[in-house]
């Protein structure tokens, strides 16, 4: 009888120990979830906010380019995107597409006044500054030239592509040697892109950004369309929240204040 009671007691202790270990494991998993899931949601919220503000910056820049060719801003953001992109495309095919030009979009023909340097400013505005290192192969020529200032022969080192210029000079004496060389050159450039219609819409609400004209059309304002916070459930216990992402008023960004 005592053995049965002992066995039953041992079995209860074992079951209790198993449940305790399971509880510890579940609590540990829940703790990990409570730490990492909110962080992932915050990162998602920040990512959407950055994307929304980036889109607004592009829409404001589109308005600036639209005014440069049309003389005024437009409350129709999609139309403005089409116009400025079309002008850039025309410049890609014809570098003389400057000044008063005719353009046809959506079966509508109208005139634009394209300023000089439009394409360069467009590419630097809608582009990310980048840097690369190029390895340049070259040949250095050692030459002897008669120097009138020194009244004697003088040795110089020039790139081979410039050699013909020195050979044609009356003071050229001789070519001594040519040595192949390599050098690393840092090149700065812009990774350009074209603003598209997707940038006209808030990435969270998928509603178009609010574009309004003030001061008799001389000032443009681009604003987030989110009026009430958007809440989306994540993993039952958590939620993604997005509020109004700000505005750009006459070039002044609310998030830079």
Summarize the structure.
The chain has 257 residues and is an alpha+beta fold. It has helices spanning 2-70, 77-93, 118-125, 163-167; strands spanning 99-105, 108-114, 127-147, 152-159, 172-192, 210-214, 219-223, 230-234, 238-242, 247-249, 252-253.
Strand content: 25-35%
By DSSP (H or I, 4+ residues per run), the number of helices equals 4
Number of structural units classed as domains: 2
Low-confidence stretches: none
Q: Helical proportion?
A: 25-40%
Strands, total number? 11
Distance between the termini: 82 Å
Q: Within the largest sheet, what's the order of strands? A: 6-7-10-11
Largest sheet: 4 strands, antiparallel
**Outline:** flat
Q: Which structural class fits the helix and strand makeup? A: alpha+beta
The mean pLDDT is 88
Describe this structure in words.
- The protein has 257 residues and is of the alpha+beta class.
- The chain folds into two domains: 150 residues, no CATH class; 58 residues, no CATH class.
- Helices cover 39% and strands 35% of the residues.
- The strands form four sheets. A four-stranded antiparallel sheet has the order 6-7-10-11, covered by helices on one side.
- A hairpin with a 4-residue loop joins strand 3 and strand 4.
């Amino acid at each position: 009888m005592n053995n049965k009671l002992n066995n039953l007691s041992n079995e209860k202790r074992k079951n209790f120990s198993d449940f305790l270990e399971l509880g510890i494991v579940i609590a540990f998993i829940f703790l990990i979830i409570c730490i990492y899931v909110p962080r992932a949601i915050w990162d998602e919220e920040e990512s959407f906010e950055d994307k929304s503000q980036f889109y607004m910056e592009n829409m404001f820049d589109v308005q600036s380019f639209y005014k440069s060719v049309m003389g005024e801003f437009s409350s129709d953001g999609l139309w403005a995107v089409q116009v400025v992109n079309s002008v850039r495309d025309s410049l890609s095919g014809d570098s003389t597409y400057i000044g008063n030009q005719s353009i046809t979009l959506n079966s509508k023909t109208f005139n634009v006044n394209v300023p000089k340097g439009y394409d360069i400013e467009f590419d630097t505005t809608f582009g990310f500054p980048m840097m690369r290192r190029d390895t340049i192969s070259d040949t250095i020529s050692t030459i002897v030239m008669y120097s009138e200032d020194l009244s004697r022969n003088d040795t110089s080192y020039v790139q081979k592509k410039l050699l013909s210029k020195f050979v044609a000079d009356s003071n050229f004496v001789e070519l001594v040697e040519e040595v192949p060389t390599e050098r690393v050159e840092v090149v700065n450039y812009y990774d350009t892109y074209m603003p598209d219609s997707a940038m006209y819409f808030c990435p969270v609400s998928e509603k178009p950004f609010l574009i309004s004209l003030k001061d008799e059309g001389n000032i443009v304002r681009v604003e987030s369309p989110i009026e009430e916070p958007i809440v989306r459930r994540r993993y039952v216990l958590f939620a993604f929240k997005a509020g109004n992402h700000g505005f750009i008023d006459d070039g002044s960004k609310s998030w830079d204040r």
